[in-house]
Amino acid sequence: xxxxxxxxxxxxxxxxxxxxxxxxxxxxxxxxxxxxxxxxxxxxxxxxxxxxxxxxxxxxxxxxxxxxxxxxxxxxxxxxxxxxxxxxxxxxxxxxxxxxxxxxxxxxxxxxxxxxxxxxxxxxxxxxxxxxxxxxxxxxxxxxxxxxxxxxxxxxxxxxxxxxxxxxxxxxxxxxxxxxxxxxxxxxxxxxxxxxxxxxxxxxxxxxxxxxxxxxxxxxxxxxxxxxxxxxxxxxxxxxxxxxxxxxxxxxxxxxxxxxxxxxxxxxxxxxxxxxxxxxxxxxxxxxxxxxxxxxxxxxxxxxxxxxxxxxxxxxxxxxxxxxxxxxxxxxxxxxxxxxxxxxxxxxxxxxxxxxxxxxxxxxxxxxxx
Length: 370
Hints:
This protein is mostly beta strands and 370 residues long. It has helices spanning 2-26, 52-63, 290-295, and strands at 34-35, 69-70, 78-80, 89-94, 101-105, 113-117, 125-126, 134-139, 145-153, 155-162, 170-171, 179-184, 190-197, 202-209, 215-220, 222-226, 232-238, 246-252, 259-262, 268-274, 280-286, 304-308, 315-316, 324-329, 336-340, 347-351. α1 crosses α2 (52-63). The longest helix is centred in the N-terminal third of the chain and has 25 residues, at 2-26. The chain starts with a helix and ends in a 19-residue tail after the last strand.
């Protein structure tokens, strides 16, 4: 009987300890803390028939060394947008005219398909189906169409579907090489994208006129993003000496005046995206943080940064133990949407960057620090 009383006291102490931790965790605002182990399930007060074995489990839990707890250091308010725990979500883009996000995901099968949802809701609508991969969707400037890359005919080509109807997809490019990552010009008449050249062994930036079908090569690079005013193209390009790190470039819409704006000998810069006013650039780093270097995370994203369009005034926006990448700066609500594994699953998050009050105050003479 005395032994049972001791077990009851241990259970009560465990309950008070866990309840105190739960209250503390609930008081922490988003984003949720990343943890090195799964959260402990809620503990309920036991009755007096608790078994000795269960009491020993509680003692082991109380006496076990605490795993490290990592606190998110993201700048600004951060909100989770998608909530899958199966597969993962990728390549988010936002409608410029309404509260909609589009993304690719393999949450329902082995292949990626295109999905739609409101930024604030939980319901998702699957737009494409099939035993192939549909990836990298992008809304047209009026929000009526979605351009995306698909390998449904073998190699990746650029296709179009309507946002609010279930009509068939329309093919835009027809080569045997891969074409990826479409971006619209502001007039909605042209698509800029990256295309692989097996002859040259590199990626090139291409532009197709949707009315005439005319195709034009603009220069070497990958993952283009057309500026809000249509005058420039933002893209990434691999260095071809001292390691194949990507850096961020801009060029005029006709391919002239190619300028490197973000570069480092120690880390890569990828996935560039214009701010709605064209004054800033959001991008993801690779192998920059101590965590990424420790894990040798050279094939995955790292953190989200923003920089002035002239390449100065580097500002870090996320600093989490888990990787974040693929930012999209929304022209509808001004938030930056991105992909992150901060909660253990590959989901979409968004944040309101303070760069309009922070980065714009950085002196133009300040240079990027590695």
